[in-house]
Design goal:
Largest sheet: 7 strands, antiparallel
Helix content: 10-25%
Number of helices: 2
Oligomer: single chain
Structural class: alpha+beta
Number of strands: 11
Order of helices and strands: HEEEEEEEHEEEE
Shape: elongated
Distance between the termini: 113 Å
Radius of gyration: 44 Å
């Protein structure tokens, strides 16, 4: 009985070459590097990059539209800064006391003019108005809170009162100014203002007005005549 055939080896035997007896050149299998699988992190990075690009595009478009709207608004409506003017000072009291202080009561007539066709203004309550002489505060008061519409002129009367030290130096300077008929006064105003565009209130900001006046007298129970005036207007957020 013949023996069972032997199993084939797990490798291939190289056959001899008929020409030289050397081994036949069998090329090795090509090298295959490991390919990293496409993971979920790469997908997330791609989505984040697309989202950021969309955000930047939206922001850019928003800036362009805002600039176009502002340009159209300025072109068609030509917004202007409102103007303010002190039109009269009624001296109710200006009495020098025995303790070298002065008791003052002024009634100021103020004109506020809004020349804009599309802009209104809301003047807030948290404001102050001071009248000063030679860096000395004579009296103070408050403006009324009100809403000024478009192309509107508002007249208001504000009562100011105060009592302040008024030494001999200030009295001598006042007498000299009164003799010359030129008494310098500084009216300082600070008021919060909110712009209204087509009945839509916008952000509030602070308005500072410095009015340098020269009047002819401050005699009690008389109306001072305004000889000259100069106005400085500033804004702050």
């Amino acid at each position: 009985m013949s023996a069972p055939p032997l199993p084939s080896p797990p490798y291939m035997m190289l056959q001899e070459n008929n020409n030289g007896g050397g081994a036949s050149a069998v090329p090795p299998p090509p090298y295959r590097g490991k390919v990293a699988p496409y993971t979920g992190k790469q997908k997330k990075r791609g989505r984040c990059f697309k989202f950021i690009c969309c955000c930047y595009c939206f922001l850019f478009i928003l800036i362009i539209l805002s600039a176009a709207l502002l340009f159209c608004f300025y072109t068609f409506y030509n917004p202007k800064v409102p103007s303010y003017e002190v039109q009269g000072i009624d001296v109710k009291a200006f009495d020098v006391q025995h303790d070298f202080s002065v008791k003052t009561e002024f009634l100021l007539t103020i004109k506020a003019y809004n020349p804009n066709k599309a802009l209104g203004f809301i003047y807030g309550e948290n404001n102050y108005l001071n009248v000063m002489y030679n860096d000395t505060n004579l009296c103070s008061g408050k403006l009324p809170a009100f809403h000024q519409g478009t192309e509107n002129t508002t007249m208001m009367q504000v009562m100011l009162s105060g009592k302040t030290p008024f030494g001999s130096g200030l009295q001598e300077a006042m007498m000299e100014n009164k003799h010359n008929g030129r008494i310098p006064l500084l009216v300082k105003v600070k008021v919060p203002v909110r712009i209204v565009v087509f009945d839509v209130p916008l952000r509030q900001f602070q308005v500072f007005v410095n009015c340098s006046l020269v009047v002819d007298n401050l005699s009690p129970k008389q109306k001072a005549r305004i000889v000259s005036s100069k106005y400085d207007l500033n804004f702050a957020l």
